[in-house]
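Protocol step 4 of 5: obtain the predicted structure for the target chain.
Materials: sequence only (see below). No template structures provided, no constraints applied. The aim of this step is simply to have a reference model before the mutagenesis design in step 5. Sequence pasted as it appears in the construct record:
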Amino acid sequence: MLVFPNCKINLGLNIVQKRADGFHDIETVFYPVNWCDALEIIEGQTDHEPFTFSQSGILIQGKKEENLIYKAWQFISEIKAITPIKVHLHKTIPMGAGLGGGSADAAFLISLLNQKFKLGLTSNQTKAIATRLGSDCSFFTENKPVLATCRGDLFSPVKIDLSPYYILVVYPGINSNTKEAYTNCKPKAPAKDLRSIIENIAVEDWKNYLTNDFENTVFIKYPEIKKLKEDLYNSGAIYACMSGSGSSVFGIFKKEPMLNFDKHYNFYLQTPVSKIL
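Step 4 output (structure tokens):
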């Protein structure tokens, strides 16, 4: 069985306050984008290897046991009996990019295992398992725009449709560390309610209201990311922003943008639905 885990972008990101547990309360909107990996599972042939993993595309460093895909399989196998499997991941979504690609891979594996082996897991059960893997992981079990609050793991529906626009996502080849990005951030209550901005203000005016607090620290360390955002505006974007804690930056366009980036940049252009139909 083969699926195509997609990534997400963050429409605005406010760091609201530091929590007693050392984490931060945030508010942001997760919006799905069709930049995808490819994930395939087939049944294995021996009980001596209950989980076999292979990969292609962008190389994933580290041990198999550190991968969210392995951890997702491990959580499932703790509660449901499943036969040995072979998993292959073709990776195209950059890592350390603020796009949630690793979380998407794990969430899609949970759904894939549930479907292939008829495990009977409910939507709430799959979400609970995904939440154990990361704050944004359960978002990918439904893949619909949501307002994310608390640690970024409490979701509520939000009315937003960017299908009439081109969305250009650019990864500048920089791995941005989330923990490091929080350093020197000063939590504060947002000046304007994020849901109100997304639902009531025209996309053309978002640049005056919709901000990502991580840009304050990340742009200082990586001025080339700041320049990338400026380049997107200079190329005609009506809105541009860094996604998550970086380092990817996206632009929203009314017209198809010119694709002219350095060779080490990875990028994805999502076409308006009207151009597909």
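Step 4 remarks: Residues 130 and 138 are 5 Å apart (CA to CA). The radius of gyration is 19 Å.
Proceed to step 5.
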